[in-house]
Each structure stands twice: as C-alpha cells, then as structure tokens.
Amino acid sequence: MAYQFYITPEDYERAAANGIKANTLEARVRLYGWDKERAISQPLRKCTDHSAWHSIARSNGISLHLFRCRVNQHGWSAERAATEPLTSKARKRELMLQAKSHQQKYSPEVLAQAAANGVQAQTFYKRVRKGWSVEAAMNTPLITNLEKGQSRSRWLRDRGIDFNAKVFQKRS
C-alpha cells in the first residue's frame, strides 16, 4: 500500500483539470482522510449565491442568520425568506394555543371537573397514563403526606414489621 498523504504534481494537475484547487485537495486528503482518487475526482458542491437577497432581508428586519436558517434548514425559497415578516410573540402564542387545543385528547369539561376536585391537569394525565380510568383520575382527590405516612405505617404493622426498631435502635 502506497503512502496516501503524498500528493504528486500530477495529482495537483488532475485536480485542477476537475476544478479543484490545491488547498481543497490537500484538505480532503490530509485533513478529512479522503482517498486520493476520490479527492481528485469528486466535484465541488454547488453553492447558490443569495447575496442579492441579503439587502432585501435586512430592509425587512430579517437578520442574515435568520435568512440563512429559513433557506437552508426550513427549505424556504430565497424570496420568501427575505420578504416574509417576522412572527410576533403574541401571534406565536396564539398559534401554540391553537395547536394545543387540536392535540388535546380530553375535553375542557373533563379537565375543569378534575380541577374542581383539586386534581391538576398534569396529575390527571399522569394518572391516565398509569392506567387509571378517566373517571377515577379526575374524581380521586390527592393524598396528603400525612395520609401517605399513616398508610405506610399501617402496611408495616400488618406485616409485623416494627418501624420504631429501625429508627430507635441502640448504637454499639
């Protein structure tokens, strides 16, 4: 196997014939670890020049970063990215609420009934995910910490476990 990082003058000439500059060829081979043949023969990516739209975007209050995000990440046309105005925070909030209302699985009446019984929406959804019925999830009140402790003590007593023995044990 030949030394792959050495680029001969003939390799530079072949790359130049394919429209690849010397520093690009060197970066492909030495920095990116490409095979020499691939580095010489693979053409450069085509980049579209959107510089004509930059001034239009700035005049519409759109930053260059946002313009590029709209074009490259969201797939917008350059014209749309430069001319479509920014969405206000109030409009974004309104759109989010509309999207949430379409995604809700349970009616607002069910959530209102749960809230009237002291059950928050988040607690209601967790209970349903755990397998509770909708009626039980919205009608069962929350258990206080005192009730939790009493239930645990009762459970230990029923099994014959002395809770106090562990807490008040003698040290040696």
Tally of helical runs: 12
Q: Taking all residues together, what is the mean pLDDT?
A: 88
**Which sequence of SSEs, written as H and E, runs from N to C?**
HHHHHHHHHHHH
**Roughly how many Å apart are the termini?**
74 Å
Which consecutive residue ranges, at least 5 long each, have pLDDT under 50?
none
Tell me the β content. Answer: under 5%
Total number of beta strands = 0
Q: Can you tell me the overall shape? A: elongated
Class from secondary-structure proportions: mainly alpha
Give the helix proportion (percent range).
55-70%
Please compute the radius of gyration using only Cα atoms.
Answer: 34 Å
Q: What does it look like?
A:
This protein is mainly alpha-helical and 172 residues long. Helices cover 62% and strands 0% of the residues. It contains twelve helices and no strands. The protein has helices at residues 9-17, 22-31, 36-41, 51-59, 64-72, 78-83, 89-103, 108-116, 121-129, 134-139, 145-158, 163-167. The longest helix is centred in the middle third of the chain and has 15 residues, at 89-103. The model has no long low-confidence stretch (mean pLDDT 88).
In a nutshell, what does this entry contain?
This protein is mostly helical. It is 62% helix and 0% strand. The radius of gyration is 34 Å and the shape is elongated.
Features:
single chain; 172 residues; mainly alpha; 62% helix
